[in-house]
Amino acid sequence: MNPPAMLETPRLRLRPPVVEDAAAIFDAYTQDAQVARYTTWSPHRSLDETRNFLEQHCVAGRKAGNMFSWLITMSEGGPAAGMIDFRLTACRAEVGYVLAQRYWGHGLMTEAAGAVVEWVIAQPEIHRVWATVDLENVASQRVLEKVGMVREGMLRRWVLFPNLGPVPRDVWSFARIKETGTRS
Questions:
Q1: What is the per-residue pLDDT across 72-93, written as a single tens digit (0 to 9) for each?
Q2: For the structural domain made of 7-177, what CATH number should be given?
Q3: Where are the alpha helices (DSSP H) in 8-166?
Q4: pTM of the shown model
């Protein structure tokens, strides 16, 4: 799979993050405990943690061909607003995202996720785009619904969110499937 390096929407520009983005990303959201609340990572305590994340996950994932990340910025330029990615497993792609607090409530993540989900589901080899979200994360649930995903069910004790405690939490599973006209 060869995702586009850049995706653009009316308000946003999504591009692959690079290690040189570490300071902007750290300042925007990786050190923010509120942003990290429903993530699988703890707030970054240093710029080096953000640098390592970019090198070991974003850059390495794209190179390996199994994880593709985009840094979200406003289309007219400006600082890092967030990040969105998808991870491939066979005919499925799992979407994940994060957005800096200053951009919450403006529909930006719906716009970014819509662009990524539309591109991914259009790929011939992908038949399912999916995501999980904590039962209490209503804002993220709304994003997934707005981009055409359907809540399929609850996955019990599915994900450990370190910022919410030491026990894996229940999540909703959302998905959008490619309609093929045949049933299996």
A1: 999 877 789 999 999 999 999 9
A2: 3.40.630.30
A3: 22-25, 33-36, 47-53, 60-64, 108-121, 138-146
A4: 0.93
